[in-house]
């Protein structure tokens, strides 16, 4: 038995030793620093010009403009976007397609100068629409910005975290015309007096809509969980879900850590334990940080899950508030997953990671399928760009989404892959972690396997795309509806329909349909009718191209709403 134990330990250490990162910011051309900012600034590792290469955007302090670095075949060059930002203390930098026109617009938060929003009018020509977008321009202490489609109308809304004892967080509804409406009251978000750092949109209960979790600073307040009621309103359920912790909560990082199809949450803290909420699948969570050995026990900020060695499980990187001078506290943490949910601290993966670090994000500098990590440091330290030098003995698959019925970026989608019955899951975000934005492309490690049995995308619209027998070592671009011949609405009764449609909208149901009402994106009824059949055909030739909602009535009482797009 002793020999077996020794062999297991040696084998695990051999596996860990394969993960290797090298700090390569200067070598790859990223030479900026963010200066000194109170409680750090954000970072984005996002392909903002849609050329297939992940770019880097660095939020910075007053008097220092936001730094944009364009990725050209794996090397970075400064990119002047003519965005005037040197008069604000920038916190979050989001690239988000607010108008669904296929290019990325720019959103910036600040803790002393309000918000800025720039429309990409084409070819990265940025137009400041801050004063016309309908958002408040007050100089609130804005921190995190998380984008999601809470009312499922196809346009991304934004939840803004405000670190203040009196000013509430803000939910803005996207009107679809480059303007936003303050939606706190209509959505039922009335909580005030919370020192909020960050939030995340997620579907914690797998009911198909987006909920919101909020990380709040200071022990005197608790974190918040807003459950989406499916009708444009929320109910605060932190206590009921077991997530109402009172800690110095910094980040909220969402992923499916144990690959069971339910989203988990990691929350950083001061030198007391970090929290890993494992989703129980019944609407509740359990803190398993100690069991998973990821408590960290130092002041920590940003955190991100990634499969660093493409061995089919998620590892964890944490940024810490320490420069290495205090040897009793960690300045960062790299935790390696052994494929069985056992994490081990292995900081040799990121040698000499000593800086006052706050936000971090993952992307792929060279499109080799092995994720890199970028870290924003303060006190005029250069950022860290951790180049992944792990031996490429394992295969990988990257997936990028494009919505048609759902929002253009495919935010709020579940991606599921299966290899010999073993599943992995990713959930798409726009703004998560601590003031961070990861690559829009999702990473999957496939180990030595060369074929993925299937890739399944469940979009916010309810549409499901499935691709079978997918070769590895490629970036798979999936357009919503591109694989569909017949789509099933996951509900009772069962509904089957083709989407998008041209002239005729054909629906098959498991029970008789009594009536239908079709409304446009503004809620105006445009077509109605009655029937008494399991098969329904609706002529849409009188309607313009666009997004519509079809309400179906069954047996006089049951109602279902499906979203359709007319080409």
SS-based structural class? mainly beta
**Given this structure, which CATH class of the largest domain is correct?**
Mainly Beta
- Overall outline: globular
Give average pLDDT, whole number: 91
CATH architecture of the largest domain: 7 Propeller
Beta-strand residue percentage = 35-45%
CATH topology of the largest domain: Methylamine Dehydrogenase, Chain H
The main β sheet shows up as: 8 strands, antiparallel
The CATH superfamily name of the largest domain is Integrin alpha, N-terminal
Helix-strand layout with pairing:
Layout: H1 2-17, E1 21-23, E2 43-46, E3 55-58, E4 67-72, E5 75-78, E6 90-96, E7 105-110, E8 115-120, E9 126-128, E10 142-148, E11 157-162, E12 170-174, E13 180-182, H2 184-187, E14 195-202, E15 211-217, E16 224-228, E17 234-236, H3 238-241, E18 253-255, E19 264-267, E20 275-279, E21 285-287, H4 289-292, E22 300-306, E23 315-322, E24 332-337, E25 343-345, E26 355-363, E27 372-377, E28 384-388, E29 395-402, E30 414-419, E31 422-427, E32 436-437, E33 442-447, E34 451-458, E35 464-471, E36 475-479, E37 487-489, E38 495-497, E39 504-519, E40 525-539, E41 546-554, E42 558-566
Parallel strand pairs: 2-32, 29-36
Antiparallel strand pairs: 1-28, 2-3, 3-4, 4-5, 6-7, 7-8, 8-9, 10-11, 11-12, 12-13, 14-15, 15-16, 16-17, 18-19, 19-20, 20-21, 22-23, 23-24, 23-26, 24-25, 26-27, 27-28, 29-33, 30-31, 30-34, 34-35, 37-38, 38-39, 39-40, 39-41, 41-42
